């Protein structure tokens, strides 16, 4: 209570940059931004090329 309102997103990213950079250097996942959202549990451990090929194949299948 009494804290200022949060800054809008683009500003927040800039304001937290030093914290995120230090977290990356320290390997501290608790202070990093991990952009995975609610679907994180669906992630697969695969090479980027395999992922891109799979996405292409699945898209082609869906589009007929």
Summarize the structure.
By secondary structure, the chain is mostly helical. It is 52% helix and 0% strand. The chain has 3 helices and no strands.
Rg, please?
Answer: 18 Å
Q: Helix share of residues?
A: 40-55%
Global shape: elongated
User: What is the arithmetic mean of pLDDT?
Assistant: 89
Task: Count every helix, treating DSSP H or I runs of 4 or more residues as helices.
Answer: 3
How large a portion of the residues is in β-strands, by DSSP E? under 5%
Span between N and C termini?
55 Å
Taking pLDDT < 50 over at least 5 consecutive residues as the criterion, the unreliable ranges are none
Order of helices and strands: HHH
Q: Give the biggest beta sheet.
A: none
Helix/strand/pairing category: mainly alpha
Total strands: 0
Structural commentary:
It is a single chain. This protein is mostly helical and 64 residues long. The chain has 3 helices and no strands. It has helices at 9-15, 17-26, 48-63. The N and C termini lie far apart (55 Å). The mean pLDDT is 89.
Topology summary:
Elements: H1 9-15, H2 17-26, H3 48-63
